[in-house]
Design a protein that fits this description.
Residues 7-23, 149-167 have a biased composition (Basic and acidic residues). The protein is built from six helices and two strands, in the order αααβααβα. With 202 residues, it is mainly alpha-helical.
Length: 202
């Protein structure tokens, strides 16, 4: 029975750590909710107790709701549909690791009824959508630079190829001329020898 008790204790520690980290994240994102776990009547304590509730019924009672990256929306929707105590220690660790990275708390509004609702952040930090738009623009700019660099590299490569081809042709022409000179020089020597022999015979 000891391993079971130890496992339960570890799970409780993981749950408490997860609640604490999520609550601090909510406090950071929703500045109007003071962090005071000891006071169960204050908003932050309610965040700790229902931090993973993502249903429309609960979102309208809280000053925040959860939002995830598009690729993680369905994954976190299943997690946030349950109470924190219903999850495993693996889920607690995942939430502690990913909060603020792949999901975040955003101020609740009339439109904040589902996980993927779009609302403005009260924090000065950029939202996921703003970061994604910024990354897309940066990717577009870098892609354009790559295309331009590739075009310049291709043009330079073609110029070098043409230059090398021209040099090979010039070397070939030079070799042909040198061969012609040697051939003519040889013919000239034979002609001079023939002339001398003819003179001696006469």
């Amino acid at each position: 029975m000891a391993p079971i008790r130890e496992s339960n204790a570890e799970r409780r520690r993981g749950r408490d750590e997860c609640r604490d980290k999520l609550s601090k994240h909510i406090r950071k994102k929703i500045q109007s909710c003071p962090y005071n776990p000891a006071n169960s009547t204050r908003p932050e304590a309610r965040h700790r107790n229902k931090a993973l509730r993502g249903s429309p019924q609960s979102s309208c009672k809280r000053p925040y709701c959860w939002r995830a990256l598009p690729s993680k929306k369905n994954f976190y929707s299943e997690i946030f549909a349950k109470n924190l105590s219903a999850h495993s220690i693996g889920t607690y660790r995942l939430l502690c690791r990913e909060v603020g990275k792949t999901f975040e708390a955003v101020p609740s509004s009339a439109q904040c009824q589902t996980l993927d609702s779009i609302t403005s952040l009260s924090s000065t930090e950029p939202s996921f959508s703003a970061v994604i738009d910024q990354l897309r623009e940066e990717n577009k700019r870098l892609s354009q630079q790559v295309r331009e660099s590739t075009g310049r590299a291709d043009a330079e490569s073609e110029r070098k190829r043409l230059t090398e081809e021209e040099n090979r042709q010039l070397r070939s022409n030079q070799q042909w001329l040198e061969d012609q000179i040697r051939d003519h020089a040889g013919c000239g020597g034979l002609f001079q020898k023939y002339c001398r022999e003819m003179i001696l015979r006469t």
